[in-house]
Structure prediction request, 394 residues.
Amino acid sequence: MGRWEPDAPGRLTQAALELFVERGYEQTTVLDIAERAGVTERTFFRHFADKREVLFDRRNAMQEAVVAAIAAAPETLPPLELAGLGMAAAGDFLEGRREHAGRRAGVIAANPSLQERELLKLAALSDAVATELRQRGVPAPEAGVAAEAGVGVFRRAFERWVADPSAPDLATCVRDSLATLRALAAARPRGRGAVTR
Amino acid sequence: MGRWEPDAPGRLTQAALELFVERGYEQTTVLDIAERAGVTERTFFRHFADKREVLFDRRNAMQEAVVAAIAAAPETLPPLELAGLGMAAAGDFLEGRREHAGRRAGVIAANPSLQERELLKLAALSDAVATELRQRGVPAPEAGVAAEAGVGVFRRAFERWVADPSAPDLATCVRDSLATLRALAAARPRGRGAVTR
DNA sequence: ACGGCGATGACAGTAACTGACATCGCTACA
DNA sequence: TGTAGCGATGTCAGTTACTGTCATCGCCGT
Prediction:
């Protein structure tokens, strides 16, 4: 074809984020995105399965970072610790892209349709973590629950991180939330740790 | 108009579930569903926001049951206990509809598009639980984390419940998973609960 | 020069949704 | 009893997300 610019996916993602911020997700057509990126609508769908997917990393770099962090952790750590450490790695991953992650999160938060996709990615992340834990010898039920708890903790930590500008590192937020979970799990009915049994 | 049958939404949901099981979600058109239910396509979209929504209860009865269960629980219970008790109520709710829930879960499991919607509903459930916990005086961060953990636990329990025919009550599965989470949260690096610290 | 390969454009087609308007049947009320 | 109004539906045209198919262009190795 006529000479074409390299990295069509990258330009499409960039164009899409700009347009979504400018006029909103629903008010932006795939054709709009394609035109700003200098390609046709058809090319958009060659790189992304659907309109939402343009906001999500095709290489799944964050998930790989999480899995790698768990795989590299010392043998002695218990499952929930591993999951937490993985999610902290996810925090570090996003910390470098704070501004971009913030804009992106804003767009997603404004669109249920995009939230669904985000949730699906997080579910996939949970499955990946569970698989990695099992690989390291954690029994299936524990692995599943630990992964689910880890991702849940991450979601709340992320929420705080984007909402509160005075919040610390995302990884720190994650560790805070995990500590909260530990405290909750240890709580006994009225009179913590006392007589109740 | 010509005399019309009552409960169009109900017949649409029924028709949709049948067709999804018979030929699959993607192979079923909204027109197909509408025709089997004896209405037009337009009427379908008057009752459901989109094609996926037809599989989800418009009254959100389960969520209400969960919130009610938490609201009715004794004052003395700690947050994670409340969340767990709420999810057990969700289990009881689905237990009566086991067969229907099973078929529905099968269809959803086969379609990422439907999984996304399910995940969104669960996220809404998590928010509702968190809100209810805050209403009962639980501080925001604890409420959020407890709700997230509760729903996570529920997901894994539900997974087991549908996959394993020999599994007990869903509510029992939920309590099992919650116990697993508690054990995980208490685990210390190598030598559980012992000298490590 | 040539042939194949990868990325793209061009174009037609399906199906999910939406908006606007007409119609029908029931209910309340004069 | 008739009629005005309301709620649920049908009709129809239109937008947009997404897919299949085929032609074209530039590059790369032989």
Observations:
- The mean pLDDT of chain B is 94.
- Chain B touches chain A at residues 76-81, 112, 115-117, 119-120, 123, 141-142, 144-146, 148-149, 151-153, 155-156, 159-160, 176-177, 180-190, 192 (CB under 8 Å).
